[in-house]
Amino acid sequence: MVESNNTDTKLDLPVIFERYHSGWESRNPDLIATLHSDDTVFHMHDGSEAIVGRDALRQHCVELFKQFHFTLERSRLLFGENFWIFEWLMTLELQDPSGNPFTAKIEALDVVTVNGVGEVTRKDVYINGEQKAAAFKQAGLA
């Protein structure tokens, strides 16, 4: 990883992204949390409150993975000096109120900021609200 005292050293964001993304793909709250800073902010822009702090994020992921089974399909991935923007498609396995399974697809976009030692300091997730509302309505969750 990068030494925090060396401002000339560039972060290897593609490597950090792959490790971070593997935490989400493997549904590993511990790995995800260890890659965030202590004072991290995770904000799902769907009307819910931002989650602040590594421990709160870990617990959020535990609950999220218990409640929903989803996979991520990659689309565009752009890197800046200390951030990445990741466009992806969530495939979410749900059931309607009668118990019939169905698959929902919801477009999403992550904006992730990383500090000088490679920790995620902020993750903002923007999801397609219309697609989410339709899926949750069909599942009786709306």
TrEMBL record:
Gene3D superfamilies for this protein: 3.10.450.50
InterPro entries the UniProt entry points to: NTF2-like_dom_sf, SnoaL-like
Organism superkingdom: Bacteria
Family annotation (Pfam families): SnoaL_2 (PF12680)
Span of domain SnoaL-like: 18-121
Protein name (Swiss-Prot/TrEMBL): Nuclear transport factor 2 family protein
Organism: Microbulbifer epialgicus
